[in-house]
Design goal:
By secondary structure, the chain is an alpha+beta fold. It has four helices and 28 strands. It comes from Pocillopora meandrina.
Length: about 450
Amino acid sequence: MAAVEVATLSTIALSSVIAAVVLLVILYIGFKSKQPKDDSSENIKPELEEKHPINGESKDKTKHPKGKRGNPQLKNHPRQFAILKGHTGDVFDLEFSLNGKYMASTSLDRTVRLWSVKDFKEKEHKYVRANVDFDHATKVNFSPDTRAFITALANGNTIRVFKVNKKKDGSGASVTGEFDFPVKHSAEIINIAVASNGKFIMSCSRDTTIIIWNLKGEVLSIIDTRQMNNSYASLSPCGKFVASAGFTPDVKLWVVEFTKTDEFKQVSRAMELKGHSAGVFHFSFSADSTRMATVSKDGTWKIWDIDVEFTKKQDPHLLMTGIYDASFGVYNNMLISMSPDAYVTAVAMGRSIGIFNTENGNLEELLEEVHGDDITAIAWHPSSRYLATAGGADRQIRVWHNAAGIRIQIDDLQGRMYRAKNENVKERLEQQILEARASLDKLNLIG
């Protein structure tokens, strides 16, 4: 009996010792976890910010890693007009309506948002939200009358039509999804557009396919671009041409023809832009559809005159070749857009934007590191006074004053006034110069 009691006491004592040791280890670990470390986040953060700046102060153009989520706090820029926040996912695309009243944006957050342009100058930016159920939209394009818009669906890989309605109480607009087009593309849709004449819709996929649809979602024609893969396609503002770029260094244009009774007739080859030595990333038309701007992997961007008699086999004319900073060429994609007044051309290079003189190719202004992620979309307001850019994973849309364009406009107006012989023309030009200078005065940009 005594031996059993001794054994029991020994067991209890051993358990107590073990428990005490465990307690001491836990306390020691807890104490050490509260002590500063040599590789603490406070010490690492400055190094990360130096390698991957987000405030635009660093001159380092090393490519930033993609896929990082969050909403970095970018500093205000002197050219900044507005920052539109609200999307909770990557922003893929944006576009202004032809009447200049709205801007639409698409996002991974399964919404399309219609922003009121007149509220850009306010602290709060109003928008109408359209939900994209069970999917998300990647591209967006307004109808000419702004009463509807179309989107490209990422998962459904087709087009969805939305209708914009005015609320009965007059308090604003509402948006409703109307219908989806049938699925015809076998590869990812990379762009969509509604013709300005309202006669047809274009969609382009990553392979070599472009589809021309009527407004009901019926296929009118299928184009094989024969460019190995498409990098971009779009419609001219006049609603006459469909153009595509791809693996080859050329941009191809087709003309979409209708009968006098507005019945679809055919799609036929029109012309090609030949001159780049590598694949074309992106292109855009001038507002009057007489010129095009292209940007290529070869380190150049070009301006072309396409106002030619293509039916007589006349080729487009190369007007100007510009060079962009090759150090930005590490990025996988670049975007280009000519302002509606054609004074300047914007080139998105990674997280930066170059504003170039369309006439001579000079870099007028560089908005450097103004987004926290690679720019995914650029769009000009119809007035040419503002440029909007989307920053992808930084979830922000930033709107910029077009100061460079105003300065070039003043120079152009002064030259025209000097050459004018009619006094009424001179007075009108002088008034336009005064108005443009007043715009610069408001922005404190003169001098």
